[in-house]
Design a protein that fits this description.
heterodimer; A: 400 residues; mainly alpha; ABC transporter involved in vitamin B12 uptake, BtuC; 73% helix; B: 303 residues; 13 helices
């Protein structure tokens, strides 16, 4: 069943919804990257929660006008209007009052959501409100979507993606190098406005798929995930789009075979699993890579200290040091140095002596900054400089 | 204000006030420390904690659920910190990743497991059911002195009052260190305060308030009360003591007005049924914030 869903074998509507969710995921991943890099990720949380009163009011208005309250384009328009009002309120509170952006976000999201809940309870008491199904907007529900709604979803998701790709240049510029963007004549305020506009559209289109509580995850998780894999501007955007696309695709496909499950949580958990894998296993920033790097560094320090001790004829007590040196054949299990060990120890001692001369001499100040107790001095100085240093080493010290 | 009021409205009102004040008090410090959204994160992750506790014990009991919720809150704080440090990710984004994922996990667990027999669903988690916490044993104001009737009080009331007491005691006892570390963390460390554990303690106390409140009123009102009353109070004064007092007043006002509007407002305009009290309390707190943001004496930076 899952395989069928993943390969789009479940009929026209389900296929449209799945493809639409994938397109939406890509758009959200890309747009979210800019949001994340501008350090305004959680503004989208305020935007998404602020859609609820609009959805409710649109339903009420459409019923009052004698139409069907569940007409999706109308509901989404209402959502967009109230989300825009919420966004303006956040901006106003941040710029005109002493509140920080985090407080403004929290205030707007909770108040608008509270108002939305009030309107939902009003709708429940209306005669036509019993089967309004507006709860689907909280957590997303794509199973059994009507043909028209599925088409609307797929088309608008494609449109959002196109919009994001058209505006990619200025957005990238503002996200990665705001100073340069301003210097070359872009207005940061306008770019931010465009970015917020895109986020708003992504949120509104995503309402039916992911739901307003969790849509923020579709904007944030892909961007955060992508940061683990690369530091390059263009690549972050591409990877984030891919992560978002996969999340939306798998989430919508899974939800097609399990209609009882809300779509949003599945989409979010798929994205989160990719994030978790990246957190653990990505090269460079991942946890595993960090641990390995740390272990390597630890070994090098132990080895160096062991060799220096050997060179000065001191016994080695540290268990890890003994084990490492024994494994490399530098000492015998009883702690006595092998021929190889003696050579390596002499080399380490020479290195250390050279370093101490270099660090004491101001003319080597630049080279001395690279001293960390591990780097061989041959990596830092030229052979000429080394000869110069060696000439200053006094007669070999007697080993006592 | 007859016997009906005591039986039907007194306890929800009192619980609402306790919730509002218990959340607003630590909210002041979270707001000033620019951690306002911690309340948002905590109230989202409470859901998976409660669901897991329910699945493990198989019953809706207060103790395990509070433990589960508190455990989830602590786990979330640790996870946010870990992601922030390991991935060098900005705090807001790390928070967004953690609380959405945990909330999604909670929802899926809830939908997959058989909880239809008990009173546990997503809507309830979001906006609670303040109106249902009525005091059936009461038959007038005299019940307040009647031990038999008092035994029938909804269990949420004493629990919430206790949470309020814990929060208030914490803030009263640690007033000076909290104020110092909030305004000048470097100085606070300089005079020997351990600001790290203090900050964590503040988060834990906030979590206690959120978890206790969650069961009674749902998460949305908790977020609103963490942020709106302190933010409104911030517009009124520059003194921390006054701000905390204002915020408690605003919180209580929002709770009372919100409950009354939700319960009786629809009747005044001719409708028959009431609307969600939790939603209305959040809305009223937003209106209070809007008024102070437009007219408060200290609304702008530097005033």
């Amino acid at each position: 069943m899952l395989a069928e869903a993943l390969f789009l074998q479940l009929g026209y509507n389900a296929t449209l919804v799945t493809l639409g969710a994938a397109l939406l995921g890509i758009a959200a991943g890309v747009a979210g990257t800019f949001l994340f890099l501008r350090k305004r990720a959680l503004v989208s949380d305020a935007i998404s929660h602020a859609t609820l009163p609009g959805v409710g009011l649109a339903f009420v208005v459409m019923v009052a006008l004698g139409g069907d309250g569940r007409w999706l384009p109308g509901l989404l328009m209402g959502a967009a209007v109230s989300a825009a009002i919420g966004l303006l309120c956040v901006q106003w509170l941040t710029t005109r009052t002493r509140l920080g952006e985090d407080a403004a976000i929290g205030a707007i999201l909770s108040v608008f959501f509270g108002l939305g809940i009030v309107i939902l309870t009003v709708i429940q008491t209306m005669r036509v409100g019993q089967q309004a199904g507006l709860e689907g907007f909280l957590l997303g529900s794509t199973a059994g979507m009507l043909r028209n709604d599925a088409i609307l979803l797929a088309v608008s998701a494609a449109a959002v993606l196109a919009l994001v790709l058209i505006l990619r240049r200025p957005l990238e510029l503002a996200a990665f190098d705001p100073g340069y963007a301003e210097a070359t004549g872009w207005s940061l305020g306008r770019i931010d406005l465009a970015m917020m506009g895109i986020v708003l559209v992504v949120t509104v289109v995503g309402l039916k798929v992911v739901g307003l509580i969790l849509i923020v995850a579709l904007l944030i998780v892909p961007a955060v995930t992508a940061r683990f894999w690369t530091d390059r501007a263009g690549h972050v955007v591409i990877i984030a789009g891919a992560v978002g696309g996969v999340s939306g695709y798998v989430g919508a496909a899974t939800s097609a075979i399990a209609p009882a499950l809300p779509t949003g949580p599945i989409v979010v958990l798929v994205g989160f699993s990719i994030f978790l894998m990246s957190l653990l296993f990505s090269p460079g920033r991942g946890v595993l890579a960090s641990v390995l790097l740390h272990r390597r560094y630890q070994r090098r320090v132990h080895m160096r200290q062991g060799l220096l001790a050997l060179a000065q004829g001191q016994p080695i007590f540290e268990a890890l040091t003994r084990r490492l040196m024994c494994r490399d054949g530098l000492i015998l299990p009883d702690g006595v140095a092998t021929a190889e060990g003696q050579a390596a120890a002499a080399k380490a001692l020479l290195d250390e002596t050279r370093w101490s001369l270099v660090r004491a001499d101001n003319s080597f100040a630049v080279a001395a900054t690279r001293y960390d107790g591990l780097t061989p001095i041959e990596d830092v100085l030229t052979p000429d400089q080394l000869r110069d240093v060696d000439s200053r080493i006094a007669a070999p010290k007697a080993v006592t | 204000m007859g016997p009906e009021f005591v039986a039907l409205s007194l306890t929800p009102l009192l619980i609402g006030i306790c919730v509002a004040v218990a959340c607003a008090l630590p909210g002041n410090f979270l707001l000033l420390r620019r951690q306002a959204l911690i309340g948002d994160a905590i109230s989202h992750v409470v859901l998976p904690g409660i669901v897991v506790a329910f699945l493990l014990t198989g019953m809706v009991a207060t103790g395990p659920m509070l433990l589960g919720a508190a455990g989830a809150a602590v786990l979330a704080v640790i996870a946010i910190e870990a992601i922030r440090r390991l991935g060098k990710i900005e705090a807001g984004a790390a928070m967004g990743v953690v609380f959405t994922a945990m909330f999604a996990g909670g929802v899926l667990l809830l939908e997959r497991s058989d909880t239809s027999s008990v009173h546990l669903d997503v809507e309830h988690a979001l906006y609670g059911n303040l109106e249902s916490l009525i005091w059936l044993d009461a038959n007038g104001w005299t019940s307040l002195t009647d031990p038999a009737a008092l035994a029938g009080l909804p269990v949420e009331l004493p629990r919430m009052a206790l949470a309020l007491l814990v929060v208030a005691a914490f803030i009263f006892l640690f007033w000076r260190p909290l104020a110092l570390s909030t305004f000048d963390e470097g100085f606070a460390r300089g005079v020997g305060l351990r600001t790290g554990p203090l900050g964590l303690a503040l988060v834990v106390v906030s979590a206690i308030a959120a978890v206790a409140a969650f069961d009674a009123v749902g998460s949305i009102i908790v977020i609103a009360m963490f942020i709106c009353p302190p933010a409104a109070a911030r517009m009124m004064t520059n003194r921390l003591g006054h701000q905390v007092a204002w915020s408690a007043g605003f919180a209580a006002l929002a709770a009372i007005l919100g409950y009354v509007l939700a319960g009786y407002g629809p009747l005044w305009v001719g409708a028959s049924a009431s609307v969600s009290a939790a939603g209305m309390i959040a809305t009223v707190s937003g209106i209070i914030l809007a008024v102070t943001a437009v007219a408060g004496p200290h609304r702008t930076r530097g005033s």
